[in-house]
Amino acid sequence: MAMQTTGSNTSGEPMMDINMTPLIDVMLVLLIMFIITIPIQTHAVKLDLPQDSQAPPPPVEPTKNKVVITAGGQVLWNGAAVNMQQLRQYLEVSQQMNPIPELHLQPEPDARYELVDEVLATTKRAHVEKMGFVGNEAYMNF
Predict the structure, then answer these.
(1) Which helix (H) or strand (E) segment is 131 a member of?
(2) Beta bridge pairs of residue 104
(3) pLDDT, one tens digit for every residue, the chain (142 residues)
(4) Which residues pair with 65 in a beta bridge?
(5) Nearest to 116 by CA among 66, 64, 74
(6) Which among 83, 82, 100, 80 is positioned nearest to 92, based on CA atoms?
(7) Is 66 exposed, middle or buried (0-12, 13-18, 19+ CB in 10 A)?
């Protein structure tokens, strides 16, 4: 390590300036390590989907119930407006039937996500076993 001589430092005294390069290198390594260890943020709606079973489908075609969520904030059960309590009751009654009817969920493209999420939470609480989304082709332009 050679000492740098300047006009004012001719007596051979050590240099009083701090070398910033190692400090900057350590800070950059710490910054990179911090960025690598940050967990990736994911947003997901937890929904229990039915599992594939090896049993053959029932021979009788079950009835299908349709829930439509409109852009105006209404929830329609087979065309009739219902609130969340009525929807929960209808879902619980339909799950007691034999064979269990399918539930078709069709949110309109302009429907509020909070209402769709609330309906999905209601279907989960009612333990709906057969559910499908209808009208996904309406979202192709979004």
Answers:
(1) strand 131-133
(2) 66, 132
(3) 455 545 556 677 777 777 888 899 999 999 999 988 887 777 777 777 777 666 554 444 467 888 999 999 999 988 888 889 888 988 888 888 888 888 899 998 888 999 999 999 999 998 888 888 888 777 677 6
(4) 103
(5) 74
(6) 100
(7) middle
